[in-house]
Amino acid sequence: MNKKYMKRFEGKYCKIVTKEPGEKRVSVVTGILEDIDYEDGFILVDSEQGLGALRINTIVAIKPGNKKKSKNPNKLLNNDVGVIGIGTLIVFIAMVLVAAVAASVIIQTSETLQNRAYAVGKQTIREVSSGIKIVDMTGYTDEAKSVIEYLAISVSPRAGSYDVDLNATLVYIQYDNLTVLSLDFADGELAVNGTVSTQGIFQTLDLSCLTSTNFGVIGVRDSDDSITNSYGLGTNDLALIVINLTAAFPETGGLSTGEEFNGRLVPEVGAAGIFFVSAPNAFNHRVVDL
Questions:
Q1: In 10 A of CB 151, how many CB atoms?
Q2: What does residue 25 show for φ and ψ, rounded to 5 degrees?
Q3: CB atoms near residue 253 (< 10 Å)
Q4: If you ran DSSP here, which 8-state letter would residue 22 be given?
Q5: pLDDT tens series, the chain, 290 aa
Q6: DSSP 3-state assignment of 131?
Q7: For the chain, what are the domain ranges?
Q8: Burial readout 8-39 (b: 16 or more C-beta within 10 A, e: otherwise)
Q9: What SS3 class is residue 61?
Q10: E strands within 195-237?
Q11: Contact 154/275 with Cβ under 8 angstroms?
């Protein structure tokens, strides 16, 4: 091939067609034509197989072209250089640290929310399922049968309720005023009796100790003595709460005929027991069913 033409292809990516003497088929080599040695009659070609030499007198044709991509994109050619910058490494480490901190915050937050949700759910279940149920109400008049002096309310826990602490239970009476009664007495003693006297429920307790600020308790059904020992109203227990209406209604000395009032039994936890008392127009006996 003419020297002046060969010079034009130096440094370019070319397709070089060669034919050895005596061979019928041609060969094709693609690569960069690095150098031309006219004295020795060789050219240097940097191909995918590496740097090699071809004899000039075997060259049939040379065609310049574009360099093709390697079939294996992950394979580095001899003239490729792999560089990993320190900036990229710093950014990668920073991303890992940020992801770790974010994951830690998310885990801690989810754990806190889970514990909070468990506590709220447990408290809500207890609030909904617990409470006091009003079973019956009975009044006790004075000897003249003019007013109801004492009120006995039969109570038991609601179905599925936790134990009710009577010592922490309050009785609200709404008449002309709002009166609040508790089981706590000024002298430190509680008016609690575990069994009903043979003379009747209104002779079981010392009614003189009942005032406008407290109430008494009688255990009607208390197989485990929880009412007398710990003031706890458990499952299947039945108790009577005795209230002094004479002290609660000092203006009338008790509940007169035809009078009525509202009340609530409010436990420490759970639903309150609401009751409505309406006195009949006449008291035929001292014990009055209300």
A1: 26
A2: -105, 150
A3: 14
A4: T
A5: 666 677 788 888 888 888 888 788 888 888 888 888 888 788 888 888 888 888 888 888 888 877 655 555 555 554 454 455 677 888 888 899 999 999 999 998 888 888 888 888 877 776 677 788 999 999 999 999 999 999 999 999 888 778 888 888 999 998 888 888 888 765 555 678 777 888 888 888 888 888 888 898 988 888 888 888 888 888 888 999 999 999 988 888 889 998 999 999 999 888 888 999 999 999 989 999 88
A6: strand
A7: 3-64, 130-289
A8: ebeeebbebebeeeeeeeeeebbbbbeebeee
A9: strand
A10: 216-221, 232-233
A11: no
Provide the H-helix boundaries in the chain.
3-6, 86-129, 226-230, 245-248
Distances in Å between the Cα of 19 and the Cα atoms of 12, 58, 167 are: 21, 5, 113
Give the CA distances from residue 47 to residues 6, 36, 44, 53, in Å, rounded to whole numbers and listed in that order.
18, 15, 10, 10
Q: How many residues does the chain have?
A: 290
- The per-residue b/e assignment along 154-189, b for 16 or more CB within 10 angstroms, e otherwise, is bbbbbeebbbbebeebebebebeeebebebeeeeee
Residue 234, SS3 per DSSP: coil
What sign has the CA pseudo-torsion 113, 115, 121, 124?
negative
Q: Which CATH class is domain 3-64?
A: mainly beta
Report the amino acid identity of residue 267. Answer: P
Give the list of residues 6+ apart from residue 174 with CB closer than 8 angstroms, or none: 261, 262, 263
Picking from 19, 17, 53, the residue whose alpha carbon sits closest to that of residue 33 is 53
Beta strand pairing call for 192-193 and 13-18: unpaired
Instruction: With H, G, I as helix, E, B as strand and everything else as coil, classify residue 188.
Output: coil
